[in-house]
Known about the structure:
The structure holds 2 protein chains of 2 kinds.
Chain A: E1 8-10, E2 12-13, E3 20-21, H1 22-29, H2 33-41, E4 54-55, H3 59-73, H4 77-101
Antiparallel strand pairs in A: 3-4
Chain B: H1 6-10, H2 18-32, H3 42-56, H4 59-66, H5 112-118, E1 136-142, H6 144-149, E2 151-162, E3 168-179, E4 188-191, E5 207-213, E6 220-222, E7 225-232, H7 234-239, E8 241-247, E9 250-256, E10 265-268, E11 281-287, H8 295-307
Parallel strand pairs in B: 1-5, 7-11
Antiparallel strand pairs in B: 2-3, 4-5, 6-7, 8-9, 10-11
Helix pairs in contact in B: 2-3
Amino acid sequence: MSTQSLSVSVGRIVEEEGPLGVDELCRLCAVERQFILELVQEGVLETRTSAGREFVGPSLRRAQLAVRLRRDLGVNVAGAALAIELLERIEVLERRQDVSGMED
Amino acid sequence: MEFKDYYAIMGVARDATAEQIKQAYRRLARRYHPDVSKEPDAEARFKEVGEAYEVLRDPARRTAYDQLGSGPRPGEPFRPPPDWGAGFEFGGGAGQAGDDGRGFVFEGDPSEFFETLFGRASTMGRSAPRGRGADHHARVIIDLEASLEGGTRTLTLRVPEVGQDGRPRLRERTLNVKIPRGIQAGQHIRLAGQGEKLPGETRAGDLLLEVGFAPHRLYRPDGRDLHFDLPVTPWEAALGASVTVPTPDGSVAMQIPPGSRAGTRLRLRGKGLPARPPGDLYATLQIALPPADTATARAAYEAFAAAVPFNPRSSLGAGS
């Protein structure tokens, strides 16, 4: 490993740059628009209802996860939606288990 | 170079049908998918399975691979025969969707074995210049303090690139990144212009880092909120008390309400991650019992038992 000093990259939090438009979300996920619109229909992505198709919250993470699940496992949009819901439920349960595990 | 037994990796016989290979791939891909699996080597296994499938699902590649036999004896290095693969035209190439409509997952990390055999055919599914480089994505694990306090962290990423010989390879890239304060797990840091830049393109893509947290000795993050376990004595829980608790910006006094029970959650508003708006800090009460390991402690427990009749098992209906 060289010890050259590196410049510091300053980044911004994508989720706080404001709501993502559908085109931006498609680009970030490298996926076609239809797939994103189907995820909306499945209720996977959180949109700001007042302002049309603007995505907030965990939308980017969920959309990317859905893209990976489709690409790698061949699941369709409904299957990806179910998988994402179950994975997030497992995450919640595991956090709870961490809490109760401390009682032992 | 290590010989890869793709049939063993897929758990199928050498004379398995295309349908059997596809079924094995689907089963293993579900089991080892990095987004789904909790197994520590899931990602490596998933890539290995993907690589095996990429060879075995393609009739030309499979036939060529079969000509190698079952590999050298253990301990002997593998070297492909000089005329190996002559006369085969390897169709497709990584990155293209198969006949079952799913793309192959070659995120630029084929084994040396695969590269040696098929490297020249594994174009990385690159499209024509678009005027702007592609965005690159990576997942990074940072310590919780980076979000709590902000600060610069050195991150090492593995970046796929195409070498002079046209073969994909991995390059380590080290970045110093200023972590935005208050970032939450699952959020993304955008480093503008740090993605792909191809010759002839005017603008580089962005680099997007999906953030995850390493386990913290005290706090468990949940979105912008933080959780921790707060041990209290039985009398603090029963009678109420003021106890000192750690928060990310120093110790504060916290009121335990009388009649609290194990599992009670108490909130310290605004003491979670410094996001906008900031998250909350939750303390989950744990009742800690003092050990009855001295005569005094035993006498105190006995006096308490005599003074306060209590059957915690009454709802079980099995008597006392």
